[in-house]
Amino acid sequence: MGILLFSSFGVLLSSLVCPFNMVWGFIIFSSCFVLFFSLLLFGNDLNVICSLFYSLGLDSVSIPLVILSCWLLPLTLLASQGHMFYYSLVTQRLYCVLLIFVLFSLIFTFSSLELSLFYISFETTLIPILVIISRWGSQYERYQASIYFMFYTLVGSLPFLVSLLSINVFLGSLFFPFFNYCFIFELLYNSFSSLWWFFTFLIFIVKMPVYGFHLWLPKAHVEATVAGSMLLAAVLLKLGGYGLIRMLGLFSFINFFNSNFYIISFCIWGSLITGIICFCQSDLKSLIAYSSVGHMSLVAGGIFLGLNSSINGSMVLMISHGLVSSCLFCLANILYERSGTRTLSLVRGYKCLMGLVAFWWLISCAANLGLPPLPNSIGELIIISSFGCLDFSFIFISGGAVVVSAVYSLLVYQLTQSNKLINSFSNIINVSVREHILIFSHLFPLLLLILNPWIYL
């Protein structure tokens, strides 16, 4: 753990002093070393791995998310080289520094054992993503997207801060391992407890986001750069799921009073409605963003259910969705850089020009729709089967959401690859080796999850 923190901090410092003509190559090479050190976390059987400080550590919940964050850093740098080539060298260095700072904040967030440190590092990730969206976004609406992103996050975080102060008063500590002994809250159940629960979990519901709290996400995805979209979809949305898993034990008494029935039904219906909304989207990135909302609503329902099986299924779905959605945004960016548009009625017929990219699209869309034995199907099946323990009708509703997801995933592949090619797009730049490596690096971990679905649990 200490090596991982020092190496990521070392990459952050070295990116500030390396020569201008070596910025991209040096930072990508250094980030691969950080990835190598994170892979050493595999195989640990300890519940908590002690770190440099008593308030930092890792367990079976945080290790896969830390590895996912380290895996995405070199990929975001590779994906950004195309559109950042036209900016000045100082701007390119600043862009790389912000991406590394996001990784450093994520490692602190996922390894925090104290709620105060978790809150600070959780909110720290907001600043660099806000700068990336507002400074390097593709269209003028990026400023409106930045305001949405900031407004929704702050509205959810301020009540959480008040809740932290209340928890500290009751328990005298904000240390995560102490939350298993919070039986005192079960004796204090009243209407105020439900309001307290809502204040505590609002920040995570907004961050995931669950349907109804999702309006910031499509705008942020559409206006962000490819690296911003990759980080938002692959890692930052998982902060909400991680926080729900961590805080669920503190308010476990809510489950005893059937409040979770209404919460889970809201998440499942949100997943179904979001899938239907995807059919109305004309922008490719917006469709992928709404797809993420549907999957994250299903993840939230599995976590709120509170069973070991549903939480394990949510973890599998979070990791696999992070890789698949990031891959889809990279593929959408490849088409956007060559056609100059993301409109589905115009981006079509590329199977005739880029055969290997069509193969990447096929695998990514199949993974997004949950085709067995790909990991998305494993996570979805575990979550849906767990819903039957609460209400059998939930199986049909969540199953309908999965079917709708399959339909629009196949529709995306058909529209982008199989329709007749527009003549003005026939003379395009060939796909580089860098872009093929980028897509392959997203899909290769899915093969590992197919061989051993519990490798991240």
From TrEMBL:
Entry's Gene Ontology BP terms: ATP synthesis coupled electron transport; electron transport coupled proton transport
GO MF entries: NADH dehydrogenase (ubiquinone) activity; NADH dehydrogenase activity; ubiquinone binding
Key words of the record: Electron transport, Membrane, Mitochondrion, NAD, Respiratory chain, Translocase, Transmembrane, Transmembrane helix, Transport, Ubiquinone
Membrane topology of this protein: Multi-pass membrane protein
Name by which UniProt lists this protein: NADH-ubiquinone oxidoreductase chain 4
Domain NADH:quinone oxidoreductase/Mrp antiporter transmembrane, residue spans: 113-388
Organism: Florometra serratissima
Domain (NADH:ubiquinone oxidoreductase chain 4 N-terminal) ranges: 4-109
Gene Ontology CC terms: mitochondrial membrane
Residue stretches in coiled coil: none
Record field: transmembrane: 12-41, 61-80, 92-111, 117-137, 149-176, 196-217, 229-254, 260-280, 287-307, 313-336, 348-372, 392-416, 437-456
Catalysis performed (reactions): a ubiquinone + NADH + 5 H(+)(in) = a ubiquinol + NAD(+) + 4 H(+)(out)
Function: Core subunit of the mitochondrial membrane respiratory chain NADH dehydrogenase (Complex I) which catalyzes electron transfer from NADH through the respiratory chain, using ubiquinone as an electron acceptor. Essential for the catalytic activity and assembly of complex I.
Organism superkingdom: Eukaryota
Family recorded in the similarity comment: Belongs to the complex I subunit 4 family.
EC nos: 7.1.1.2
Cell location: Mitochondrion membrane
